[in-house]
Amino acid sequence: MRVVIAEDLALLRDGLIHILQAFDFEVVASVDNGPALLPALLGHRPDVAVVDVRLPPTFTDEGLQASIAARAQVPGMPILVLSQHVEQLYARELLASGAGGVGYLLKDRVSHVGQFIDAVRRVAEGGTVMDPEVIALLLARRDSQPMDALTAREREVLGLMAEGRSNAAVAGRLFVSEKAVSKHINSIFSKLGLPPSGDDNRRVIAVLAYLEQLTT
Q1: pTM as predicted
Q2: Angle 142-207-172 (CA atoms, 0-180°, nearest 5)?
Q3: CA 48 – CA 69 distance, rounded (Å)
Q4: What's the CA gap between 33 and 21, in Å, rounded?
């Protein structure tokens, strides 16, 4: 699986390369600044890109903007964004950039190698992966009547779905049956006014698209 990395901190960049190569990923390019990222993404068209939000020269949103620009030219290009902090604006912009694999993780997750590699693979396969802290922040907002209608258990299920987990994984995490999870999901979509779908990733994207509107 071919990967492009964008990270300005040399130690972290080298660490990412080492981790990914240890799990049989092929790092086809690694850049340390914003202007170099878009050509690398378009030139290599990787199976997945791991991108820091803030890159030189301004350390604002160069990584994010290059990722969005690449996805505009190559729809669905899988992008896993890394950020030092929970920044809702960046999460919203990434979700709004189109379908296909997308992810938003805090850099602390890289130290959990298994979780990080699982996230990279899920995004490469077209899934959606959101950091639990981002989900918790979105779910904590209580300025929307439809969201208020969800039960505590439904919020748990929604948060796990938003992390990209399958129904089976949600059931295992909550120690309930898959049938119970399915009922909770149907109830969530009914309360949020979102039509059910047989595609887990599309359901997650729809839920996240709804949640990001709550922060505007």
Answers
A1: 0.72
A2: 95
A3: 15
A4: 22
